[in-house]
Specification:
The chain has about 200 residues and is an alpha/beta fold. Helix content is about 25%, strand content about 25%. It has a six-stranded mixed beta sheet, covered by helices on one side. The chain binds zinc ion (2 copies).
C-alpha cells in the first residue's frame, strides 16, 4: 500500500494518503483540501474515504471541503469522538471554524480495508484510534504518540491513565514499526521504547 504524507495547516498536521487499488484513503485532512485533492489526482487515484485518528479541529478542517468536492465521501471516526467533532471548544477561527456534523459519518470499526487494523487508543481524546498496517510495518499514531513525547491530556475528554493504557498497546507492536505521528517527525516503536520517557515507563512496568 503506497503512502504519501504531507503537512497541512498552521499546526502542520501529518495528513497521509494511503493508496489501494486506485483508491485514496485520506487520513486526518486537517486543512488544505485543494492541495490534498491535487496530489490524489496527480497520482491518478480516486478519493474513497476519510479516516480520522481523532476529531480535533486541526485534523478535520478540510473535511467539509473534501465532501463538497467528492459527494458521498464517507468519514470514519470512533463513536466516542463524535461529540468532539462539533464540540463548541473544538474550533480555532478563522482558520478552523466550527464544522457541522459531516454527512456519511461512519463507525471506524466498520472500515473494511483488510490491510488496516484499528487500534483503539483513547486518552488524548475519548475516541482516539491508531491505524496499523502490519504488512507495511506502519502505524499512523495521531496525537497519541509523538517522537519523544505523547499527546496532551488536559483538553476536554483527555485522561492520562487511559492514555498510558493505550501506550501499552502501542509498545506491544514490533520495534521496526514506522510511526507517523499526527505532528512532527516520524519515528519507530523501538526508538520510542528506548528514548521516549513515557513509553519507557510503560515498558518497564
Ligand atoms: Zn489532537
Ligand atoms: Zn493534533
Amino acid at each position: 500500500m503506497e503512502r504519501l504524507t504531507i503537512q497541512v495547516g498552521p499546526y502542520e498536521v501529518n495528513c497521509s494518503i494511503l493508496c489501494e487499488d486506485g483508491r485514496a484513503l485520506i487520513v486526518d485532512p486537517g486543512q488544505e483540501a485543494g492541495r490534498i485533492l491535487k496530489l490524489i489526482e496527480r497520482k491518478g487515484l480516486k478519493p474513497a474515504a476519510i479516516l480520522l485518528t481523532h476529531a480535533h479541529f486541526d485534523h478535520i478542517g478540510a473535511v467539509p471541503e473534501l465532501q463538497r468536492a467528492c459527494p458521498g465521501l464517507p468519514v470514519y471516526v470512533h463513536p466516542n469522538d463524535r461529540p468532539v467533532l462539533t464540540h463548541p471548544m473544538n474550533q480555532m477561527p478563522p482558520e478552523y471554524p466550527a464544522i457541522a456534523v459531516p454527512s456519511d459519518l461512519r463507525d471506524v470499526s466498520e472500515l473494511a480495508v483488510s490491510a488496516i487494523r484499528i487500534i483503539e487508543t483513547p486518552g488524548h481524546t475519548p475516541g482516539g484510534v491508531c491505524y496499523h498496517l502490519p504488512a507495511e510495518k506502519l502505524l499512523l499514531s495521531g496525537d497519541t504518540l509523538f517522537a519523544g513525547s505523547i499527546g496532551r491530556t488536559d483538553l476536554p475528554g483527555g485522561d492520562m491513565p487511559v492514555l498510558i493504557d493505550s501506550l501499552k498497546r502501542l509498545a506491544a507492536l514490533p520495534d521496526d514499526t514506522l510511526v507517523i505521528p499526527g505532528h512532527g517527525p516520524h519515528t519507530t516503536i523501538g526508538e520510542e521504547k528506548r528514548s521516549n520517557p513515557f513509553l519507557r515507563t510503560v515498558v518497564s512496568r
